[in-house]
Specification:
heterodimer, A: 317 residues, mainly alpha, MetI-like fold, 16 helices, 72% helix, disordered N terminus, B: 312 residues, 2 domains, flat
Amino acid sequence: MDETNEVSTNDRTTLTGLLGPITRRFRRNEFLQSLPFLLVPTLLLGVFVYGSILWNVVLSLTDFRGFGNPDYSSLDVELYQQMLNDPTFITAAKNTVLLMGGFTAVCLIVGLGLAILIDREIRFEGSLRTVYLLPMSLSFVVTSIFWAWMFNPSNGVVNYLLRTAGLDFLANDWFGDPATQLWAIMIALVWQFSGLAMIIYLAGLRKIPTEQYEAAQLDGAPVWIRYLKVIVPQLKTSTFSAIVILLLFSLKAFDFIYVLYGVNPGPGADILPVMMYREAFDANNWAYGSSIAVVLLLATFAAIVPYLYYQHKKDLL
Amino acid sequence: MTDPSHSDGAESRIANALDGTSWVRAGLYASLFVIAVLYLLPLWSAIATSLKTVTGFANTAPFVPPGFDQFTLDAWSSAWETLNPSIINSAMFVIPATIIVPILGSLAAFGLTITNWRGQLALYTLFIAGIFVPLQSVLVPLSIIWSNASVEATLASLGPLNVWELPYTQRYQAQFIELAVTHIAFGIPLATLLFRSHYKDMSEEMIEAARLEGVSIYRIYLNIVLPLSRPVFVVVMILAFTTIWNDLLFALVLVSNPAAEPVTVTFSGIAGAKVQQFNTIMAGGFLTALPTLIVYVLFTRQFAEGFSQTGA
C-alpha cells in the first residue's frame, strides 16, 4: 500500500462513528429508530430463510413422506443413519465434492492465467474482458443446452474437431458416458465462471504496487518463476473470495444437471442438490430430502464460516 | 485510477518487466484472441445452428454459418411462439422483485449501519450468512408454506374487492406473487452486503452538516444517503435481475399451474422434448437468455463489480 492509500484508509470514518453525536441523543431508543428500516427485510428473512431452515431441520427428524401432513410427535435422527448406509448418497456426496473442488480449482487457475495475460497493458482489454465474462450472464438452463450441443456425439463441435484432427478414437458421447460426464460438466461450468475468477484476480493484481513488479524484474529468474514467487502469494485475499463465490455458484449446478438429465442423472453425475430434489419432489420422501438439505447446509457453512470470520476480523464485512 | 504509485509506471510496468521483444507481444495478443474465440465458440455454434434448416444443421459443422439454401428464421419464430407467454410470465415477477430487492437491501443496510444496539451485530451476521444458504435447505418448507398460504384465495376476498374480477387479471398470476416474495427474501442478504459496504465509507461532511441542522435519521436517509446510493442501486438491480431471471429451482418447486411457468421452466421443457430440433432449441436458448444478455452488454462494468463482491 502506498502512502495516499494508507491515509485514506485511516481517515475513513464509518457512518456509525460519525453519527455518534446524533445517535447518542437517541441512545435509548436506537433499536426503535432502526426498526422502520429493518422490520420488513428482517421479517422476510426470518420467515423464508431462517424460519424455513429451522423447519427443514425439524422435518428432517420426522419421517414425513407421501401425501398428508408431517407427524412431529416422534423426532429422531434415523434418516441420517439411513443416509450413511445409502450408496446413492455416498456416490452423490463424492461427486459433489469432486465437482465443486475440481470446478473451483480449475476456475482459479484459468482465471489467474487470464488475469495475468490481460494485465499487460494490452489494447482491447475491455472487449476481451466482456467476452470472457459473457457466459456468466447466461442461465444454467441455457448453458447446459448449448454445451449439450457442443458435446453432441454425432454433430457436436467437440467431436467434429477431434475427428478433423484425426483423433476419431477420442470422440465420445461426453455428457452420456458415465466415465466422462462429470468432467464434461466441469468444463462447461469452468467456461461459464472462469471470467469471474479473472475479474477478481485482475482487481487483486492491480492492487499490487509497481515496485513489486520491478523487484521481480531484477533477479534473473524466468518470468513464470517471478510470478509464482512474488506476485501470486500476494493474491491470497483474492483467492479466498474467489473460492467462496465459486463455491456459491457451484451449489447451483443443480439447474445445469437437472436440465441435462432430469431427476435421475445416474451415479456418474448425481450430486447432492439433485438427490435432495429427487427424494423430496419426485419420490415424495420429504423428510429424507430435508435431511440431505441439512447436510448440504452444514457442509456449506463449514466452508464459509472461517471465511466470514476472517472477513469480520479484517473489518471487511 | 487516481492511485499515484501506478500513474507513472502503470502503462509499462509489466510490459517492460516481461516482454523482451515485440513478437512476445504478438504471441500474447494471439493467445488472448484464440481464447476469446474458444469462449465464444459455444455461443457462436448455437447462433449458427439456430439459423439453419433441419437438414442444414444435420449436414454441416455446427460453427459454419448457414448457406443460402440452409438459411431460415423458422426456428426463431417457432421458439418465440412457444416461449413468448413464459417470457411475459418471467417479466411479471422478475421486474417487481428487481425493484423491491434494492429498496429493502438499502433500508436494511442503513438500519444496520446508523444505529448501535445490542444484538445488532448478530442480526447483521444473519443477514450476511443468508447469502450462503443453499436453496435446497428451504425447499420443502417453502413448498408447504406456499401451498397453504393460498395467495389466490386471499386476493379473491380482500374485503369487498375480488382482485380476479379486475381487468387483465388471471388467477394463475397469484403464483407470481409467491415467486416474487421468495426471490426478494433471498435477494436481500446480498443487497444488504453491497449497500452496507457503501454506507460504511460515506463521506463525513454531509452527514455532519445534516447533524448540525438537527435532521432526523429518516431525513438523512431520504435526502442524503439515498441519492448517494444510486450506483449501488444499479449494481444490485443488475445482480437481482440476472439471478432471478435465470433461476430454475424455485420456479420448479413453487409453480404448480403450467400457465404461470417462467421461461426457464418452459425452455428446459422444450429442450427435453424436441430432441432432434437443435435449431429451435438453440433459438429458444437465446430468447431465454436475451434479457440478461442485454443487461450484461449495457452494464458489463457494474455486472462484474457486483458479482465479484458477492463474497464481500
